[in-house]
Design a protein that fits this description.
It is elongated and about 70 Å long. It is built from 9 helices and 8 strands. Strand 5 and strand 6 (about 185) form a beta hairpin. It is about 35% helix and about 15% strand. With about 325 residues, the chain is of the alpha/beta class. About 30% of the residues are buried. The protein has helices at about 10-20, 75-85, 90-95, 100-120, 145, 195-205, 255-265, 275-290, 295-305, and strands at about 35-40, 50-55, 60, 130-135, 170-180, 185, 210, 225-230. The strands form 2 sheets. A 5-stranded mixed sheet has the order 6-5-4-7-8, with helices on both faces.
């Protein structure tokens, strides 16, 4: 388990990086060869080791190819920031806790959330899947050029009535959840058949039973190759027993319960803009799917972020 008290010291942070990134010994991030020689330490951070690959000649260090490479903040600060993000503290709270400039904290949060969203695994669902949509208020915070000339909202923290769109500053979030499995949530410009079909086909296996509410956009599911079952909320129907076994298997209550978790999770982050909302959604999707909290969640976050990717400064 990745313990926070072991990550306060810089040397222990780099030991944790090596343990997670190379559990079977150091390997070259370019050719994956294990024929490695150590060539001293980073002159700015003595705990960071440098290496040379005997196979391809590439030079690298403990952080090459990760999002932590080339950052001016110490690695222990990044790990502490990531741990507090897992506890769902706001960017301002974390910056105050770690004595950081608020703009630095914002940039760190975006880098960490973006790294998780970029590296997370995409779910492929089968069995019984529930689909639903929810609408949240998200404007253009920090973008005065996008709101100049817009009429002020008449009700505080509320968007235009009716089904939301990006233009109404009430973007829809479309969700798919496999019962007993993973969830997938995406912010859309609007909720129409042409916008949800690519997501459904990329996530749900053909022939899967898909449960929805009575919204008309889901009527095309049988044409797309799925078994469609729905409940009609407007008639007070929230679960239905179709086979007479006493178990009400047709419902979207799992997805509805997830929306309650999402709203509670978004509450501390007041005023999220449309431009940043997808990062928050992707991060929460990852946290929900790994089903870990606290120190165990920190380990999962680090394992994901330490997956190497090519970068302009040091391509792999």
């Amino acid at each position: 388990m990745c313990r926070l008290n072991n990550l306060i010291d810089e040397s222990k942070c780099y030991e944790e990086v090596r343990r997670i990134r190379w559990p079977n010994g150091v390997r070259c991030p370019g050719c994956t060869s294990n024929k490695i020689t150590q060539r001293g330490r980073n002159h700015r951070q003595q705990a960071c080791r440098r290496y040379t690959c005997k196979n391809c000649g590439k030079r690298f260090d403990d952080l090459t190819g990760t999002i932590f490479m080339g950052r001016h903040q110490p690695l222990s600060v990044w790990f502490a920031y990531l741990y507090l993000m897992g506890l769902n503290q706001s960017n301002r709270q974390i910056a105050e806790e770690l004595n950081l400039n608020e703009s630095d904290g914002q940039a760190m949060a975006e880098a960490l959330r973006g790294g998780i969203v970029k590296r997370r695994s995409k779910a492929r669902m089968s069995g019984v899947v529930e689909c639903d949509e929810v609408y949240v208020v998200a404007g253009h915070k920090g973008r005065p050029d996008r709101i100049r000339g817009r009429a002020p909202r008449r009700r505080r923290l509320q968007g235009a009535p009716g089904r939301g769109t990006l233009a109404k500053e009430k973007p829809p979030i479309f969700g798919m959840i496999e019962r007993g499995g993973a969830v997938r949530i995406v912010m859309l410009e609007n909720v129409q058949q042409q916008t949800i079909r690519p997501l459904i086909e990329a996530t749900i296996e053909p022939g899967t039973v898909v449960n929805t509410d009575e919204y008309v956009i889901y009527a095309a599911l049988p044409r797309w190759g799925y078994v469609h079952k729905s409940v009609c909320h407007s008639r007070g129907e929230y679960a239905r027993d179709e086979d007479g076994d006493g178990f009400h298997e047709v419902h979207v209550n799992t997805m509805e319960g997830f929306w309650s978790l999402l709203r509670s999770w978004l509450r501390p982050h007041r005023g999220i803009s449309q431009e940043k909302l997808p990062l928050y959604l992707g991060f929460f999707e990852f946290v929900h799917n790994v089903r870990r909290r606290g120190q165990a969640l920190l380990g999962s976050l680090l394992e994901t972020l330490l997956q190497p990717v090519a970068c302009p400064q040091n391509p792999i």
